[in-house]
């Protein structure tokens, strides 16, 4: 099996480790780095995967997954640069950081794949978009696809589209959580207990998402199927349109894209 090292065992890093183990990866072929000894001991006890330092990970792994916070990337790249074995595939899960940043800091010819995942990776339902750097091959992209398929769905995009992906699916769960939060508040306003309102909305969201996934119908058709003439739903839709909710969402996602571009330039 491919030896994989995850640098940074936060929530996303741990979710990837757990997904790989669930998909059949041998714990002996996995390793991770973690700055806090207590956290490292906790993960080893939970998953049976050993903690190592960056130099050991770089020397032993065939795939090095960088899952640290973007602001912490400098020291990690410095350590990797002096220890990375030739041909090691580097996979970045760092939001906003271009492959050129890694290629400029690591040994010449290092293959790099950029990934924009999202937090549903924690429940095995991530949406991850991957892009090849200058030296990454189609075969290496396929390896990354297989690895990420253990924690959700994967799509390939040109790196020039990664800022749009970040705004749409990277930040996307937050938009849904925000909408659900507002709908629960509406339920409370209408006299429902919070627990009941939450149960109603969360299950409705789950069911609607499943319909979107499993149906070949456009979202407009699915919405129209709920919208009876002169009924309750069309009255609600009119208010949403009157308040410009559609335009606000488009503007919000565009603003997230612009911020992603800014963060990439700052790196």
Automatic annotation (TrEMBL):
PANTHER family per the UniProt record, alphabetical: PYRROLINE-5-CARBOXYLATE REDUCTASE (PTHR11645), PYRROLINE-5-CARBOXYLATE REDUCTASE 3 (PTHR11645:SF0)
Its main localization is cytoplasm
UniProt record similarity statement: Belongs to the pyrroline-5-carboxylate reductase family.
Database matches in InterPro entries: 6-PGluconate_DH-like_C_sf (IPR008927), Acid_Pase_AS (IPR033379), NAD(P)-bd_dom_sf (IPR036291), P5C_Rdtase_cat_N (IPR028939), P5CR-like_CS (IPR053790), P5CR_dimer (IPR029036), Pyrroline-COOH_reductase (IPR000304)
Reaction equations catalysed: L-proline + NADP(+) = (S)-1-pyrroline-5-carboxylate + NADPH + 2 H(+); L-proline + NAD(+) = (S)-1-pyrroline-5-carboxylate + NADH + 2 H(+)
Name the Pfam families for this protein: F420_oxidored, P5CR_dimer
The entry's protein name is: Pyrroline-5-carboxylate reductase
| SUPFAM superfamilies reported in the protein's UniProt record | 6-phosphogluconate dehydrogenase C-terminal domain-like, NAD(P)-binding Rossmann-fold domains
Ranges for domain Pyrroline-5-carboxylate reductase catalytic N-terminal come to 3-96
């Amino acid at each position: 099996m491919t030896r994989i090292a995850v640098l940074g065992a936060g929530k996303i890093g741990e979710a990837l480790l757990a997904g790989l183990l669930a998909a059949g990866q041998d714990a002996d072929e996995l390793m991770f780095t973690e700055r806090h000894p207590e956290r490292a001991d906790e993960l080893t006890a939970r998953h049976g995967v050993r903690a190592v330092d960056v130099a050991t990970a770089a020397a032993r792994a065939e795939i090095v997954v960088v899952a640290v916070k973007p602001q912490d990337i400098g020291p990690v790249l410095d350590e990797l640069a002096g220890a990375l074995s030739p041909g090691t595939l580097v996979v970045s899960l760092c939001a906003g950081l271009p492959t050129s940043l890694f290629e400029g800091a690591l040994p010449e010819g290092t293959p790099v794949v950029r990934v924009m995942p999202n937090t549903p990776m924690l429940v095995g339902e991530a949406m991850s978009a991957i892009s090849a750097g200058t030296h990454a091959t189609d075969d290496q992209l396929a390896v990354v696809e297989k690895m990420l398929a253990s924690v959700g769905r994967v799509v390939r995009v040109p790196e020039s589209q990664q800022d749009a992906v970040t705004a749409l699916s990277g930040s996307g769960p937050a938009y849904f959580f925000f909408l659900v939060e507002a709908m629960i508040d509406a339920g409370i306003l209408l006299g429902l207990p919070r627990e009941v309102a939450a149960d109603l909305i969360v299950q409705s969201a789950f069911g609607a998402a499943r319909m979107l996934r499993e149906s070949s119908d456009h979202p407009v058709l699915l919405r129209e199927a709920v919208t009876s003439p002169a009924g309750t739903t069309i009255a609600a839709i009119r208010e949403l349109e009157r308040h410009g909710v559609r335009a606000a969402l488009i503007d919000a996602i565009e603003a997230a894209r612009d911020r992603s571009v800014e963060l990439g330039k700052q790196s």
